[in-house]
Specification:
Blueprint (H helix, E strand, L loop, with lengths): L1 H31 L7 H5 L1 H4 L11 H6 L3 H10 L5 E4 L6 H9 L2 E6 L2 H13 L6 E5 L2 H4 L7 E4 L24 H9 L5 E5 L5 H5 L11 E8 L2 E9 L6
Parallel strand pairs: 1-2, 1-4, 2-3, 4-5
Antiparallel strand pairs: 5-7, 6-7
Helix pairs in contact: 5-6
This protein binds 7-methyl-guanosine-5'-triphosphate and S-adenosyl-L-homocysteine.
Length: about 240
């Protein structure tokens, strides 16, 4: 009887050790994938962000909380399917650039952070679209006068995950410059502009950017959901007739 009790104790201890090891391994894996406490919830949504995540997608902290979920990025790309050149002005880890590259002829992906550009380039290889994308490390505002394209996609920083504490997110809160200046810089390249904005954005103020053109640009506004949860607002300015 005593030995049965001992065996059971031993067995329970082994199970505990194994469980602890599993937790330790999972923690190490998360550390390798740059899953800080701030971005744990985004890691839990990793397959919504990149369906091919397990094939070696790489992220950094800002990438985790900023990347456009794949289903939304694919929808945004469908708006301009067949376009010649799409400029992704704030490319991040490549969530949008990869989807544009699948449906348009060429993508120019700009990011000021060289680390992001390296991650985006590796991620594009996983989707087999690296040859359709030119990656540029640089400040979009400085590069814009030299860029040519049929569509400009703007998903700038919203100021981190705390953006949602604001009741009415106005365009002056976008980084590194306000949305009005950003739109004007993009408009000098093409009237076909897509903006991906927070779900609490002042939609009236954002859609009024169309009046910066004469005649005013066509505007389409769409709220983007993943699994029934609102993620952001996309505003399409200009024309979509590329196919
Ligand atoms: P979220 O609101 O931080 O996450 O971002 P979630 O999972 O909706 O959390 P909840 O607690 O509010 O339910 C939602 C989506 O917005 C992200 O998946 C990104 O696509 C986008 N996003 C978030 N931020 C902070 C940024 C940003 O700074 N820039 C850009 N371009 N997109 C962002
Ligand atoms: N749509 C992207 C995420 C964009 S997040 C995706 O799906 O992956 C915003 C990005 O803007 C960040 O990666 C940040 O490095 C970049 N950024 C900030 N200021 C910039 C600037 N002046 N020019 C170009 N990129 C900038």
């Amino acid at each position: 009887m005593a030995s049965r009790k001992k065996k059971l104790k031993l067995f329970k201890r082994r199970v505990k050790i194994k469980a602890r090891k599993r937790v330790e391994m999972a923690e190490k894996k998360k550390e390798k994938e740059n899953v800080t406490p701030l971005v744990r919830k985004y890691w839990l949504q990793r397959y919504d962000l990149f369906s091919r995540y397990d094939e070696g997608i790489k992220m950094d902290e800002e990438g985790w909380f900023s990347v456009t979920p794949e289903e939304i990025a694919a929808r945004q790309a469908r708006w301009c399917a067949g376009a010649g050149v799409v400029i992704d002005a704030f490319a991040g880890v490549g969530g949008n650039a990869i989807q544009f590259a699948q449906l348009c002829h060429h993508v120019v992906a700009v990011d000021i952070d060289p680390k992001k550009v390296a991650l985006a380039s590796d991620n594009a290889k996983i989707y087999g679209v690296e040859d359709n994308i030119d990656f540029i490390v640089g400040d979009f505002f400085q590069l814009a006068p030299f860029l040519k394209g049929d569509v400009v996609f703007l998903a700038p920083p919203w100021g981190g995950p705390s953006y949602k504490a604001i009741e009415n997110f106005t365009l002056d809160l976008l980084k590194p410059k306000d949305g009005h200046s950003l739109f004007q810089v993009a408009q000098a390249i093409t009237p076909n502009i897509i903006m991906y904005l927070p779900r609490n954005v002042d939609v009236l103020q954002a859609s009024a950017l169309s009046w910066l053109s004469s005649p005013p640009l066509n505007v389409e506004i769409e709220e983007n959901f993943v699994r029934g949860n609102s993620k952001g607002i996309t505003i399409y300015f200009g024309d979509t007739l590329f196919t």
